């Protein structure tokens, strides 16, 4: 593990890293920008922001940053969809774009989903500004970075020989469908889900129908049992 003090000393010298912020909450982006975007002090230059999947792909393609701070839950398909569409940029041997997930969620499927999609690390939004700057530089160097509580979990998940590396049923669902699935399994009503995800009740109903169809389930009770068995609740 790299020494945070060494990384910060480097950041305040000549070294620079160009970063794009992807999060659907403007106030959060503003806060992160204020915390890490003082380039002369941190070495971090925020070159773009985006609030959904389409915006993210457009901004990332146009700016070609070294690191993208990526929220997991985004309108348009989530962080996994951004990773899928930016795969050629991640694979660029000369100037790879690397992704660091920055999310409020520490749910297993979220962490594994974005790491499987190509992200170099996953930290939660409780991280301090100093540690986030350190994590950005480490990801730029190609290191894998995780919040302490998640590191052991990720290693266990990928090292386990008892569990399949891919849940084919879960992979059929989009990121938004997984969010709706989790809330349904927790007993939320459609109106409550709509309010929490900032979508209409009709859209919630459409997502539930799609989930039931893809998982070949008949009702929300079967869906709840399915989610509970996979520890998604």
TrEMBL record:
The modification 4-aspartylphosphate is found at residue 71. It comes from the Bacteria. Transmembrane segments: none annotated. Residues 18-140 form the Response regulatory domain. Keywords: DNA-binding, Phosphoprotein, Transcription, Transcription regulation. Residues 166-231 form the HTH luxR-type domain. InterPro entries: CheY-like_superfamily, NreC/VraR/RcsB-like_REC, Sig_transdc_resp-reg_C-effctor, Sig_transdc_resp-reg_receiver, Tscrpt_reg_LuxR_C, WalR-like. Gene3D superfamilies: 3.40.50.2300. PANTHER family: NITRATE_NITRITE RESPONSE REGULATOR PROTEIN NARP, TWO-COMPONENT RESPONSE REGULATOR. This is Response regulator transcription factor. It comes from Streptomyces justiciae.
């Amino acid at each position: 593990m790299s020494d945070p003090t060494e990384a910060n000393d480097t950041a305040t010298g000549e070294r620079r890293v160009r970063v794009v912020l992807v999060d659907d909450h403007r106030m959060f982006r503003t806060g992160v920008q204020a915390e890490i975007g003082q380039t002369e002090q941190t070495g971090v230059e925020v070159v773009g922001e985006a609030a959904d999947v389409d915006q993210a792909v457009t901004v990332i393609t146009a700016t070609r940053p070294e690191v993208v701070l990526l929220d997991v839950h985004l309108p348009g398909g989530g962080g996994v969809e951004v990773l899928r569409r930016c795969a050629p940029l991640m694979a660029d041997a000369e100037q790879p774009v690397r992704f660091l997930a920055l999310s409020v969620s520490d749910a297993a499927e979220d962490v594994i989903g974005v790491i499987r999609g190509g992200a170099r690390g996953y930290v939660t939004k409780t991280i301090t500004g100093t540690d986030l700057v350190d994590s950005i530089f480490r990801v730029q160097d190609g290191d894998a970075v995780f919040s302490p509580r998640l590191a052991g979990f990720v290693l266990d998940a990928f090292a386990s020989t008892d569990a399949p590396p891919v849940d084919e049923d879960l992979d059929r669902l989009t990121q938004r469908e997984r969010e709706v699935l989790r809330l349904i399994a927790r007993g939320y009503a459609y109106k409550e889900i709509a309010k929490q995800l900032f979508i209409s009740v009709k859209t919630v109903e459409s997502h539930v129908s799609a989930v039931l169809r893809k998982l070949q389930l008949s009702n929300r009770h079967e869906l709840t049992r399915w989610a509970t068995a996979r520890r998604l609740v």
